[in-house]
Amino acid sequence: MSALLEVRDLTTHFITRAGTVKAVESVSFDLAAGDVVGLVGESGSGKSVTGLSILGLIDPPGRIVAGSVRLAGQELVGLDRESLRTLRGRRVAMVFQDPMSMLNPVLTIATQMRLALEAHERVSKEAARARSIEALTAVRIPDAAQRLDAYPHQFSGGMRQRVAIAIALLHRPALIVCDEPTTALDVSIQAQILTEMRSLVRDLGTALIWISHDLATVSSLASRILVMYAGRIIEEGPTAAVLRSPRHPYSRGLLQSLPSRAEPGRDLAQIPGSTPSLLKLAEGCAFRPRCGEATDICHEMPALERHGARAYRCHHPLATEARS
Amino acid sequence: MDHPFWRIWAEFRENRTAVVALAVVIVIALVALLAPLIAPQNPYDLAKLVLMDARRPPGYIGSNGYMHILGTDAQGRDLFSAIIYGLRISIQIGVLAGMVALTFGALLGTSAAYFGGRTEAFIMRIVDLQLSFPAILLALMLSALLGKGMMQLVAALVTAQYAYFARTAHGAASVERSKDYVEAALSTPLPAYIVVFRHILPNCLPPLIVVATVQIANSISLEATLSFLGLGLPPTEPSLGMLIANGFQYMMSGRYWISIYPGIALIVLIVAINLVGDQVRDQLNPRLKR
Known about the structure:
Chain A contains 11 helices and 12 strands. Chain A has helices spanning 47-54, 81-87, 99-102, 109-118, 125-138, 144-147, 157-169, 187-204, 215-219, 239-244, 249-256; strands at residues 5-16, 19-31, 36-40, 62-71, 74-75, 92-95, 175-179, 207-212, 224-229, 232-238, 305-307, 310-312. In chain A, the strands form 2 sheets. Chain A has an 8-stranded mixed sheet, with helices on both faces. A 4-stranded antiparallel sheet of chain A has the order 2-1-4-5. In chain A, β1 and β2 (19-31) form a beta hairpin. Chain A starts with a strand and ends in a 12-residue tail after the last strand. By secondary structure, chain B is mainly alpha-helical. Chain B has a two-stranded antiparallel sheet. In chain B, β1 (60-61) and β2 (67-68) form a beta hairpin.
């Protein structure tokens, strides 16, 4: 099966006066049409930059220094600005964390959706309206026809994010990159949107890259999980397997710090320390300074070892738990 | 009743002073608009002027048979008519200059913010340079250079004032330019002018409206100053400034009315516009929202 999206050794650096920030280091993964992959990691792990790199949205001083991104066979890295622009919004779309800053406060939703449509094709006002209503209905906005003429401030945060997703859906893109789309929302709204996204993906066959620091939201949506740390993928595998028995100590740390896994009355487990500065990464495994399992061999960078459907980058992988 | 206009009006109505000022502005604008119907005399028709009636005090009944309620000037013009016609010219010039300066300045400021880099630096440094000169000096030099006439005057006023709009628009547009929805729109093939006109410009309007009200009042007083100094309009079409200037030499001889009444009209108009402008500014300033 040929994948919709093939990312190979994607490497994005930010060349600043203080030094080179290696935000993304040789990230590779495949994504099939209609599939959902979750990109998980703390702030600064490079997950957002990975998403932006796929859409060619890296601005100087950032640069994709190596690797390739193929969308349905077409190479996106090194593509000229205009070709990238005709691609964005039509074949690849992106949904961002803050739905307020994504919508223009002085234009009605109808106008903004029409502009998004007109960016790629000539549409009559009526056709634009009909398609906007269709997209808003798809994300379950009640009274879509009426709400279309409202302004962004008349929507709640969850509704605004739905509008943003509807705009992303307008052109029926093959791939949508969602960068923490539910982080700014209430938990109950998060759950609703996740459910809706799941049925949308099923109905429309859109592939999703779901970027989040929250393992819980990712796990309910993604079929595969990529865990990133300091710009590298440190573990990947089918969602259920990774959640049940993480092989990398960092993945385990992330899982243990989930509030739902804590025993009542006990402190949450934490990963000691904080994400390292990408400017001066220590040699070897980037997680070594915070890792309980670290030994001398960890001064060498471990390779991403593949074992069937799973892969991890660790010299001391955790044992698979016995299935119960 | 839920239309934004009514909400704006409901808030505006709470400020009594501003409502009165708005009423004054509207009345003056109407009077100026309907000048030929209201004024007893056409002050520009030199054939109608009777020198015998010159410099008569308020209340004098002239040879034409009607009362000069505000007296007459040195040419025997009915001052009341002259003031109405003068207001008409002042408002015309003020609004025209203000609007042209708004359009030009907003266009310059937003394009500077849109293009960024050297273009931005170039445009904005010119604007800064110009703002470091007093507007009156610039307008004076230009109207002396361009000569007399309505269009020349408007051109001088626009040149003296567009910089305020350009700077305001640039500030607001720079903020907009970095907003996510503008970046998102620019990352698609949507033409840049649509992004500028549909996404950026509408967001810059509130501060521009505030500057516009202030600048219309400013261009009116600037025009009056230029006319007072003899640089504005030709003497056959006296504006308020010229009426004041004409009466100035008679002040000491007790014929106060030739200068005073046009002066009062000018002050009332400018103060009223400024009061309305203040209220508009308060309403459009999100930091003052209750």
